Prior knowledge:
By secondary structure, the protein is mainly α. The protein has helices at 12-25, 37-44, 48-60, 79-98, 105-122, 126-142, 147-167, 170-174, 178-189, 193-219, and strands at 34-35, 64-67, 71-74.
Amino acid sequence: xxxxxxxxxxxxxxxxxxxxxxxxxxxxxxxxxxxxxxxxxxxxxxxxxxxxxxxxxxxxxxxxxxxxxxxxxxxxxxxxxxxxxxxxxxxxxxxxxxxxxxxxxxxxxxxxxxxxxxxxxxxxxxxxxxxxxxxxxxxxxxxxxxxxxxxxxxxxxxxxxxxxxxxxxxxxxxxxxxxxxxxxxxxxxxxxxxxxxxxxxxxxxxxxxxxxxxxxxxxx
Length: 220
């Protein structure tokens, strides 16, 4: 199989967009944060024109928000967005997992993400646990062998991480799912894709309820 990432960027602009998405996914940029065009262009070693184009694309995707006289800020997701994201996740991830096989490279990436999360848990590094969790679910989508689907999933993953960032309790959000991820990976490795899919569907329902409940408490 091709060793290149399924979502490998073809241009500098695409590379910058992916890099900013990664910053959103890993919590380096948080909801409501104002982005300094000069500082970010300098840190990424790119021109302001390239950064503005990336801002334009990410604003269209709903990850950033442009406001007159305030500039560009990181978007703040609402409950309707969270519900929609989880609906998409169940459709995409469960379908990809149900039709997968243990020897797929994505399965190895799932196992690597589980190992990384378990190591981070031992170190009480809950932000790293969250990052490993996102990598685990991205690996599930890679099972579908669709570069377009993977690119789309990168967008909704970034939106989901924004919602996580609002709740500001990484341990509460991610600790319960380390062992669940391990069980899903183990079922796939043992050739039980249907069982892995059932576990994943239950996992996503529980995760959605947890996030929505925490988000509702935050709004109050």
